[in-house]
Amino acid sequence: MTAHPAGTAAGPRTAPGPGAPAPHEGPALLLNREAPGADVVEDALRSAGLRVTGPGGSGPDAPGVCCAMLTGERVLGHGGQGGGRPLDRRAVAETARAMAERGGGRMLLVTDFGPEVHAATDPGHAADRAGDLAFWRHLAARMAPRGVLLNQLRLGVAPFLDGPDGPGGPDGPARRADVLRHLALRRTARPEDLSAAVRQLIAAECSYTVGDTLHVDGGMGLGMIPPAVPGGPPRKAGKAGKAGEPAAAGEPAARGFDLRGRVVLVVGASSGIGRAAAVSAARRGASTVLVARRRTELAELADELDSGPVPAGAAPRHRVLPLDVSRTESVPRTVRDAVAAAGRVDALVYATGLFALDRPESGPDVRDRSLALNLHGYAAFAEELVRYWIERGIPGSVVGVSSVGASAALVRHMESYGASKAAMAHYTRCLAATAGRYGIRVNHVAPGLIRTPMSSIVSSGFERCWLSRIPLGRVGTVEEVASWISYLVSDAAGYVTGTAVRADGGFGLAGLPPLRLP
């Protein structure tokens, strides 16, 4: 493998800065170290303070973190020495078993292959890579009960993964420029994007995401079709540069996970996931504007945050704006009040919502209330802030809290809730496509069974049935969801947009409970 600066006297080149989550305890193992991008991943592991070892450890010497490389997608112009090699499934399985005997750990597949069908791809080669990805997901379901959490990181167009001939030969640069027009963020991936994503997925606090894929691709999966003639809203000069130019956006090397100096507007901050998101952002140095109906709970949270620990050099302040979010006509004024109180707003976290079941006697009321809180309130805040960010040239970030119910029909009578959350999820994708050209990112987190005041209505019998379909075998915590929210708000996720992250213990793998055969 080509030498790289990791571990030299100069130190790692992708130091994440304050706020980076602590990794799962090491040592770390890197498989297929000749693959494109392996040097960046090794650098990320070392910058996390992990000792990178070779294969063969067992017992106490088994790795606590393992990253496997499966890169070299030639359709994206990637390749070079070690590119396109198949996954060493035997080594992966043996490592997973050794980690389980050690007591658990994190395993991450770093890949640039995906499920898309490209006309230029050899079908046999594509089928082999699809088999590797499926192997990883099935192994994730098998190993989660033993404490080994497997996930995938899918990287988009990344020149640092290019083969010696560049992106596809002499016409490569023109082809890549055309591909960029299909990306929401209009830039390619950088080593810092990969490094920060690795740090998030191997973190100790990333403990309720199983078998999921984090798309670090600038919105490549949105399916955007660029207009034949460039167009869009008028562009104005802004404080951060020329509005409409995403140059100021997505600079993970500049701030990383650090939220000092940022202002995060948290809607639904009085309890549950919203409260945990506010606490997590504050601990990374952010100021917050707390929005919900319950004034007393908001005031108590603001007092707690003002007296809580903060990173060195941070001076966050926390403000309260009571609001009934279902009254969307009040949202523009609330955003103006937030900007006036805090000086600016850099990010929106929308964590409020309604869970209610449709009954024959309820008529359209449940549907109307579900849409009002789960979709219309979210859209009102997001659109108001996107407008504000475009006018001022601020590369803002929106994070919505959706649900696994957006894609799974969990119980009967969930028509209104499921439809409203599905609408929220697709609204996120569409807004990401619209706002990406201005450097604005829009994502959402889809929690599963999480211990919150809302989940207290779940009966013990239903909870047992749900747990039987969760490979990790337990209920998640609000802090495990908040960790993802803080990542998506930060510059560490500067190349992540239009995507959903599941915090569901592996429920999204959609496996049935183990069958009890006679």
UniProtKB/TrEMBL annotation:
Keywords: Oxidoreductase. It holds the Pfam family adh_short_C2. CDD domains: SDR_c. It comes from the Bacteria. Residues 1-29, 230-252 are annotated as: Disordered. Gene3D superfamilies: NAD(P)-binding Rossmann-like Domain. SUPFAM superfamilies: NAD(P)-binding Rossmann-fold domains. Residues 1-28, 243-252 have a biased composition (Low complexity). GO terms for molecular function: oxidoreductase activity, acting on the CH-OH group of donors, NAD or NADP as acceptor. Belongs to the short-chain dehydrogenases/reductases (SDR) family. This is Short-chain dehydrogenase. It comes from Streptomyces carminius.
